Amino acid sequence: MNSRFFSLNISLLLCFTAFLPLLFMGCANLGSKTLKSERSNYNLAIQRTNDEQLLLNLVRLKYRDTPFFMEVSSVASQFTLSTTATASATLQDGVRGLFGLGGSLGMTEKPTVTYSPLQGDRFIQRVLTPLPLQTIALLFHSGWSIERIFRLCFQQMNHLKNAPGASGPTPSLAPHFMKFASAVKFLRELQIQDAINLSYNESDGVPKLLLHINEE
Predict the structure, then answer these.
(1) Partners of residue 44 on adjacent β-strands
(2) Which PROSITE patterns match (predicted)?
């Protein structure tokens, strides 16, 4: 009987030690797989909620309501991994020894999202401050359509107005923008033909945005 117990214990030990590396190999790959999936999920969730928040505030402005922004200042996610391994054996008279191995793997996520309201001076600086001309030139050289840049970033070009009153509450009269839209559409056609260039410089400390047209 002792020899049977001894041989059974040896078999259990060998199977148990062979099972452990497989369990921990799965644990080693779990962290990288979790990073690949969860990072994209958080990225998409923040992008989607930012778009929804922007749309909500546009509707608020339309009905003369107060816009309010909540920024996601930080996202922290903690993953807790737990593993267990078990071995069991049953030995009865006249019956062959029965033994079994078991294990479990569990993971718990504890996300922490910190929100920061955008208000006061920060609201004015982030939302109401005009874009620097240098940034607009950078957008042009990054491949953006000049039509899109001008329609989004400029309220007026010389005497052509780009609906300056439309950025606030809904105006009582339809804003003027058709001549501006036609002008920037023509600039877009020149951009496609590589016939224009946009540059930034400063003259006597005054920032300027220069539009060069290729006469050829």
Answers:
(1) none
(2) PROKAR_LIPOPROTEIN
